[in-house]
Fold this sequence. Notes:
Elements: H1 3-6, H2 20-33, E1 42-49, E2 55-62, E3 68-72, H3 86-96, E4 99-103, H4 115-129, H5 131-134, E5 141-146, H6 148-162, E6 170-174, H7 185-189, H8 198-209, E7 232-239, H9 243-255, E8 260-269, H10 279-296
Parallel strand pairs: 3-4, 3-5, 5-6, 6-7, 7-8
Antiparallel strand pairs: 1-2, 2-4
Helix pairs in contact: 3-10, 4-6
Amino acid sequence: MDPELEAFVHLLPKVDMADPVGTRHLFDSLAASRPPLDTTGLDIEDRTVPGDPDVPVRIYRPRQAHGAVLWLHGGGFVFGGLDAEHPWATRIAQDAGAVVISVGYRRAPEHRFPAALDDCYAVLVWAADHAAELDIDADRIAVGGHSAGANLAAATALRSRDEHGPRIRFQLLNEAILDDRHRTWSARNFTDTPWNNRAVRIAAMDHYLGGRPATPYAAPALATDLTGLPPAYVATAEFDPNRDEGIDYALRLLQAGVSVELHQWPGTFHGSQAILSAEVSQRQIAALGAALRRALAD
């Protein structure tokens, strides 16, 4: 493990998937305790996307923005939200120079699949239909996310292709959980890795699915046809049970004729980008923003 990251492992909060409400409160309080971010140059607005139910979103608009990205937070489908995701969304907007639409999708186990995906897809359609009002280019909309959010980004791309929905310019999948079968080498062997391990990811998918069989929209690794999907940036962490399915999905996208940039970050673990003082974290975050900036450029 990268020594700058390893020094912080003993300080990390434990993820208790058996207590979704308590875990939400823990991570919300951690987010609230962070020093205020410098949001100079960003206009930030809370909106509600009409639907059944309505979906809360937070829009980050940098000056002279190039395109937009639907940003989907992580949290094992169980925790995370607009406030907890505020630091991530701010940095993405600043580094990518893009409008970020952060989505407060419904969370499991109170709202199981397909509730979260329905919310994300509804926001995508709304953004494309209201592009002029939002002052964005409907042909330059990307989807992206971290962990469970990356699952939802991949699923949104699949659904939009299948339903002939809005054209998605690019998909950014950071440390995605994509497979409910948990059978890759990393999913089987990483049982004690920081933040995310085999037990955590199994519990996350159980909360999300509620015992029902997965479809490709719940576990995109199950999709047999990946043709016609948007170009992708796929990032994986070395000590992450999600690692191997992310790499496999990137290779399958390539074999389906989809342009892919795959970056496997050595010495890292799931979500270790949160340790901002580490040089490797700074490079990871910069790479996400740069990939979006390139993809959404004129």
